[in-house]
Design goal:
Largest sheet: 8 strands, mixed
Helix content: under 10%
Strand content: over 45%
Number of helices: 0
Structural class: mainly beta
Distance between the termini: 44 Å
Length: 115
């Protein structure tokens, strides 16, 4: 992984979000064109400092030999507290191919629970 290229950016929320001290930010680099779901995840980072404040920066190294210029790659983010998902990406953040950059600012939205 040392010397591999990276995708980087921030995870932020448009609304004021006071996160629990035990919250974790998870960011994943996904190959949307991959038919085998076990091979779709190309890299990830989990950030867990106590008392996370948004925005949070991330850096995900990836194996360049796994990048196919004809494929579509996105970053997906979520914020969790234990087993509970608090926030998820509001839209897809395209990266790496088809003119997309290797930097993305991901916006997350609060998960609404319906009963």
């Amino acid at each position: 992984m040392q010397g591999w290229p990276i995708v980087s950016g921030t995870v932020n929320c448009r609304e004021r979000a006071d996160l629990p001290r035990t919250a974790m930010v998870h960011v994943e680099l996904i190959d949307l064109s991959q038919k085998d779901p076990t091979k779709a995840l190309l890299g990830e980072e989990s950030i867990w400092p106590a008392g996370i404040k948004l925005p949070v920066t991330f850096r995900i190294p990836y194996d360049p030999s796994r990048i196919d210029p004809s494929h579509i790659y996105v970053l997906r983010a979520r914020i969790t507290d234990g087993e509970k998902t608090l926030f998820v990406s509001s839209s897809m953040s395209y990266v790496l191919t088809r003119g997309a950059p290797n930097i993305a600012d991901i916006v997350v939205v609060r998960v609404m629970i319906r009963y």
